[in-house]
Amino acid sequence: MAFLFTSESVSEGHPDKLCDRVSDTVLDLFLAADPEARVACETFATTNRVIIGGEVRATDAKMPAILDGIEAAVRGAIADIGYEQDEFHHAHLEFQNYLHKQSTDIAMGVDSGDNKDEGAGDQGLMFGYACRETDMLMPAAIHYSHQILKRLAEIRKADADSILGPDSKSQITLVYDDNGNPTGAHKVVLSTQHAAAASQSDIRKLVTPVIADILPDGWMVDDADLLVNPTGNFVIGGPDGDAGLTGRKIIVDTYGGAAPHGGGAFSGKDPTKVDRSAAYAARYLAKNVVAAGLADRCTIQLAYAIGVAEPVSVYANTHGSGKVADSHLEKTLIDLVPMTPRNIREHLGLNKPIYTPSAAYGHFGRTAGEAGPGTFSWEATDLADRLAAAV
User: Fold this and answer.
1) Are 387 and 289 within 8 A, CB to CB?
2) Which end of the chain is more exposed for a tag (fewer CB within 10 A), N or C?
3) If DSSP codes are grouped into helix, strand and coil, which group holds residue 9?
4) Edge-to-edge, what's the strand order for the sheet holding 313-317?
5) Which one, of 144, 85, 125, lies nearest residue 362 by Cα?
6) What percentage of the chain's residues is helix, strand, coil (to nearest 5)?
7) Confidence of residue 235 (pLDDT cuts 50, 70, 90)
8) Cβ neighbours of 372 (radius 10 Å)
9) Of the candidates 45, 94, 19, which has an alpha carbon nearest to the alpha carbon of residue 239?
10) Positions of E strands within 66-181
11) Distance CA 324, CA 331 (A)
């Protein structure tokens, strides 16, 4: 049965995404100084104010220098996004830091010891997904939504006089055929902050060719189905227009609703937190299953108990498209890449300052190494040949 399906993305200047960026900036600052640092940094942003809080731990000798560098790093991240507005300016906003030392109770469960391997940083369930809808093995609606906003950000940053502002959202509704394959776009929504002097027609003229270029040939909608700034005005935006918090765009960060989500956010969390690292590992496994030609679609679920190294469950579902039994796939994947927190971090190289680029335009559907060595390592398909041989 044919159907419609919709996903959205938000730009790096969206207030929630700005908070994700700040939290990951703080995380990278810690990991650059101490690869074994523990960080769970939350950010709140509103009119000319940014507040961070959460738990951290690092080598005592390195902690003072890290803490001294946080404010400058945060202001630099906001400047890079492009906020120099009267009511939200990287140089003038009030910054407050409420980070505190990690709980010893949490540390006791996570740290390795004489008689146990390092445990998971929390209980929870994580999902990974891959499919053949795009070359990046991602669902098409979220993939193209990301690409539109990423391109518009590049255009904005390349032109000091751009009419575009940092805050924007895109949403794409696709048409799927009876076999579940996307065949074209049904509606496209694009809302972008803009200069006060810019008209709606100015914005439409700028964004329409960008959208047409991003969508596959023959997919562009007609004018009636392209909704650009449908409220009519979007001058006040970012944290001045709406408050932001870390971790409120978890569906944007993952698969746009096309796959399950365990509920845990990613940004600001070091890789002992399986909310992040195991979600990356699950995507890595699912993507390699599809890349190996073993399925057209694959969902992987991992689940953990705090302080326990081995996952409490591993689940694979190839949605009827698998070339081998799902139960056999589960066993083979864990044999090839054991899913303990330490092994995940070592296999994917996660104890590095690689996280800031993931704070906007999706944690998945990227290219391994695209933002520097080690970035998006979970997007590699280096397991595919071994996996195909093992099954």
Assistant:
1) yes
2) N
3) strand
4) 124-131, 297-304, 313-317
5) 144
6) 35, 25, 40
7) very high
8) 12
9) 45
10) 84-85, 88-89, 94-101, 124-131, 164-176
11) 12
> Which two tokens mark 347?
């296999």
Q: How far apart are CA 354 and CA 376, in angstroms?
A: 8
Q: Are 268 and 39 in contact (CB under 8 A)?
A: yes
- Whether 40 and 10 have beta carbons less than 8 Å apart is answered as no
Amino acid at 129: Y
Query: Any idea which residues carry the catalytic annotation?
Result: 14, 16-17, 42, 55, 169, 234, 242-243, 248-249, 269, 273, 275
Cβ atoms of residues 173 and 187 within 8 Å = yes
Residue with tokens 């698969």: 255
Distance in angstroms (rounded) separating the CA atoms of residues 211 and 188: 9
Q: Quote the distance between the C-alpha of residue 99 and its chain's center.
A: 23
8 contacts 16 by C-beta, under 8 angstroms: no
pLDDT of residue 381: 98
For 328, the token pair is 């056999």
**Residue bearing tokens 């409220």:** 231
Place of tokens 């098409």: 140
Q: How far is residue 191's CA from residue 195's CA, in Å, rounded to a whole number? A: 13
The C-alpha angle with vertex 52 and arms to 51 and 56, in degrees rounded to 5, equals: 165
- Rounded distance, CA 337 to CA 16, Å? 34
Instruction: Give the tens place of pLDDT for each residue, 22-64.
Output: 999 999 999 999 999 999 999 999 999 999 999 999 999 999 9
Both tokens assigned to 385? 């040949």
| Interior angle at CA 354, CA 350 and CA 357, nearest 5 | 135
Q: Which 3 state secondary structure label does DSSP give 56?
A: strand
> Is 85 in a helix, a strand, or coil?
strand
| Residues 187, 176: Cα–Cα separation, whole Å | 13
Sign of the alpha-carbon torsion through 121, 253, 33, 54:
negative
CA distance 195 to 118: 51
pLDDT at 1 over 80: no
Rounded distance, CA 286 to CA 367, Å?
Answer: 15
State the Cα angle at 17 between 259 and 82, rounded to 5°: 145
| Number of helices followed by number of strands (H, E) in the chain | 11, 13
